[in-house]
Amino acid sequence: MNKLSEAERYLLDAVKRGDEQGWPQLVERYQGRLLAFARSRVRNNSDAEDLVQEAFIGLLRGLDRFRGDSSLETYLFSILRRRIIDAHRGKARGVCLLRDTLRPGDDDSDSGPESRLPSPDPTASVYARQDEKRNEMHHALATAIDDLVSGYKDALNFRELQIIELVFYAQLKNAEVAKAVGVEAGHVATVKHRSLSRIRKHLMDMPALTSSSDADPPDALLTGVWEDHRPSCPKRSTLGAYHLGTLDPAWHGYADFHLNTLGCRFCLANMDDLKQSEDRADLDRLRQRVLQSTVGFLKKK
Ligand SMILES: [Zn+2]
Known about the structure:
mainly alpha; 13 helices; 0% strand; Rna Polymerase Sigma Factor, Chain: A; 68% helix; binds zinc ion
């Protein structure tokens, strides 16, 4: 499944061809949102800039391996996030503000997300391997989650989408989810169960499946795939429309939840960048206006 937009494909082709304008254009397009994300995770501004620079270098180094399984933005975010985690030995791991607020201690632990939750004997699982089968299962898992999320979005079922975001993306407990969304805890359990069965159904068809337990991936893995692929994040254009107040009410409510209740740091970084580029555009417009209105004065002298 190729997730690249036409603009992204065009930019990547230009970079691969060695087109002189390609790389500067690509950097210009993504630097703002990446820097906003790095700044939200790293206090020191020059450290944040170093990490963004490393992420761009990482993209160039792995360019041949990038197959477009995620958008270029998401791919860059995931490289950057890994750099941040490496630089801070596992700290600054969280991507949901809500989770960090509810359990502030978690982010300071040096242990990986895998250690947060018990998982069924990871050594026996296809996900613990380092081979093609594991990659296939990861890919299938990402597709399954994507299908699940698209189903909710197409049906405008944002209530259930919010519930599964809180369960899988933010890893909240059922009672916490119930409180955040304003439903009964039993309903959260039902939605979670239904979602897991749909993911399971998807994975059971995979030829790479080595045992039926592989169709029940550990929660931490679901979160990891969610963080890497961002299936529920609104598109940047949607965030832009949200910012302008031109989204229809259902989508507006959802974007608002994703940004302000869940506190998705990727999307918050995008919003910061959108607001800042708006300021820059204002300045550009103002400069043009000043120049145009002053052109006559300069000629007279
Ligand atoms: Zn998001």
